[in-house]
Amino acid sequence: MDTEIAILTDEQKKEKAIDAIKSVYDPEIPVNIFELGLIYEVSIYPINNCFVSMTLTSPACPSAQELPNEAKQKIMDLNIFNDVNVEVTFDPPWTQDMMTEVAIVNC
């Protein structure tokens, strides 16, 4: 870990993780998973660990394995976290009301 990364605040690390998540797109909808409202939580824990709680548009989503794995990999590629844990939950279930304005305009 280089010196620049070592001085990042937890909030800056969280912003970088969210930016990485925004590069992950749902293959069926031309919108990233953050704007779709699939990300419920991004937390930074001691010793540079990142936790992400997310959902899918449906439990039968054909990308159920790929989206969480891609999100984890994009965050790991930042090389600022020791570990990244992405947890998928369906509580609460996703609804279109969770989408941001950006997602609504692009759908």
Tell me what the structure shows.
The chain is an alpha+beta fold and 107 residues long. It has one domain (3-106): GMP Synthetase, Chain A, domain 3, CATH 3.30.300. 31% of the residues lie in helices and 18% in strands. The protein is built from four helices and three strands. Strands 1-2-3 form a three-stranded mixed β-sheet, covered by helices on one side. Helix 3 (66-76) links the parallel strand 2 (49-54) and strand 3. Helix 2 packs across helix 3 (66-76). The chain is globular and about 40 Å long.
Number of domains: 1
Distance between the termini: 39 Å
What is the CATH topology classification name? GMP Synthetase, Chain A, domain 3
User: Which residues form runs of ≥5 with pLDDT under 50?
Assistant: none
- Strands, count: 3
Largest sheet composition: 3 strands, mixed
Q: What is the helix/strand order? A: HHEEHEH
CATH structural architecture: 2-Layer Sandwich
Share of residues in helices:
25-40%
The structure class reads alpha+beta
Determine Rg (CA atoms, Å). 14 Å
How many helices in DSSP terms?
A: 4
What's the mean pLDDT score? 92
Q: Provide the β-strand percentage band.
A: 15-25%
Widest β-sheet, arrangement of strands:
1-2-3
The CATH C-level class name: Alpha Beta
Gist of the model:
31% of the residues lie in helices and 18% in strands. The chain is of the alpha+beta class. The chain has a three-stranded mixed sheet with strand order 1-2-3, with helices on one face.
How do the helices and strands line up, and which of them pair or pack?
Layout lengths: L2 H4 L3 H12 L17 E7 L3 E6 L11 H11 L6 E6 L12 H6 L1
Parallel strand pairs: 2-3
Antiparallel strand pairs: 1-2
Helix pairs in contact: 2-3
